[in-house]
């Protein structure tokens, strides 16, 4: 911080030497100095490397978790990469390409036994500075109207996206608290944006954010920081949204639902969501950078909204808009109008 104090002294002395005509220039220099000092402060106080610290990441078979595990390994962290299938290519590539600090372990977040065994393994292999962070990244996605779904469909989604994160958080929280570390939760824009066909997914992510928000308040006195990652459409980058065939959906309908939902609408919905699978961001870099900031910055954000610049303004104000306005967004969608015409026809 010596350069900061030196620069401050120079500015204070120069103020007494300046005439009135240069006063605006002086204030401009002050503003630039403050911005520079803030950047310098953050650089001096953020983690430069992760040596001696461990991070547990769930859902490392592919997608965000896979890329984050590789990045943190290169930064010197001991990485406990939880994978649903440790023998599969994604998990094996972490072992083959990573250092000896990369630890791949079996972790199905829906199973208490897996979580218990993972904790035992982590505790037995912790580096000197302990468990610094847990990144709750494991998640699944699906789409379908509520009337097409069953209670089990909602339970399956929540068991991974919501209760999976809770199941991992509780046993590992004491270890993170001991190191005054970080807890990260990968949510979605659908936690606050109500969308056709995304009911089960939205329920799980909205519940996840409620859990993370409450935890953040509880952890303040312990020095643990909690952040939420809210990705937009990263369908290509993660391949998380499953592709469905219209006939498979239609075959599951009983006669009553076949009278309500036109088969042509089912085909249109499949085409729309399959298109989403091949659109959006093509790589994970925006999400990985946000995760890194949440992990190593001295003052991480509570939420990281990760959408395109075109969508940024709307999604920032969306949570504060009246419901009648946010609901009316769908009335400008061609799919919404086609759906209305096709129902009961």
TrEMBL record:
Q: Which Gene Ontology molecular function entries are recorded, alphabetically?
A: oxidoreductase activity
Q: Does the keyword Oxidoreductase apply?
A: yes
One of the protein's GO biological processes: steroid metabolic process
**Is Transmembrane among this UniProt entry's keywords?**
yes
Q: Which UniProt keywords apply?
A: Membrane, Oxidoreductase, Transmembrane, Transmembrane helix
Segments passing through the bilayer? 22-41, 313-336
For this protein, the record's InterPro entries field holds: NAD(P)-bd_dom_sf (IPR036291), Sc_DH/Rdtase_CS (IPR020904), SDR_fam (IPR002347)
Q: Which residues form a coiled coil?
A: none
Q: Belongs to which family?
A: Belongs to the short-chain dehydrogenases/reductases (SDR) family.
- Protein name per Swiss-Prot or TrEMBL: D-beta-hydroxybutyrate dehydrogenase, mitochondrial-like
Taxonomy of origin reads:
Eukaryota, Metazoa, Chordata, Craniata, Vertebrata
């Amino acid at each position: 911080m010596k350069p900061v104090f030196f620069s401050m002294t120079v500015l204070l002395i120069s103020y007494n030497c300046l005439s009135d005509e240069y006063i605006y220039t002086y204030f401009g220099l002050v503003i630039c100095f403050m911005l520079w000092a803030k950047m310098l402060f953050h650089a001096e106080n953020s983690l430069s490397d992760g040596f001696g610290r461990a991070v547990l990441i769930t859902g490392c078979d592919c997608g965000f978790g896979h890329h984050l595990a590789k990045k943190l390994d290169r930064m010197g962290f001991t990485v406990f990469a939880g994978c649903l299938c440790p023998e599969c290519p994604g998990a094996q590539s972490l072992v083959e390409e990573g250092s000896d600090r990369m630890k791949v372990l079996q972790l199905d977040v829906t199973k208490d036994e897996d979580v218990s065994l993972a904790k035992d393994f982590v505790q037995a292999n912790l580096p000197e500075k302990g468990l610094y962070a847990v990144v709750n990244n494991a998640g699944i996605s699906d789409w379908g109207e509520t009337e097409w779904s069953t209670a089990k469909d909602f339970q399956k989604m929540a068991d991974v996206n919501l209760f999976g994160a809770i199941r991992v958080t509780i046993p590992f929280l004491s270890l993170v608290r001991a190191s005054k570390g970080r807890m990260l939760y990968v949510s979605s824009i659908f936690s606050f944006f109500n969308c056709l066909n995304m009911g089960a997914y939205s329920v799980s992510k909205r519940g996840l954010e409620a859990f993370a928000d409450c935890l953040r308040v509880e952890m303040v006195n312990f020095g643990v920081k909690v952040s939420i990652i809210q990705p937009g459409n990263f369908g290509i980058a993660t391949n998380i949204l499953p592709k469905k065939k219209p006939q498979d959906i239609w075959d599951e309908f009983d006669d009553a639902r076949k009278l309500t939902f036109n088969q042509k609408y089912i085909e249109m919905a499949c085409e729309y969501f399959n298109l989403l699978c091949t659109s959006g961001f093509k790589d994970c870099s925006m999400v990985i950078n946000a995760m890194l900031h949440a992990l190593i910055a001295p003052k991480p954000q509570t939420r990281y909204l990760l959408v395109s610049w075109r969508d940024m303004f709307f999604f920032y104000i969306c949570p504060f808009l009246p419901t009648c306005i946010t609901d009316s967004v769908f009335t400008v969608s061609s799919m919404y109008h086609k759906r209305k015409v096709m129902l009961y026809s």
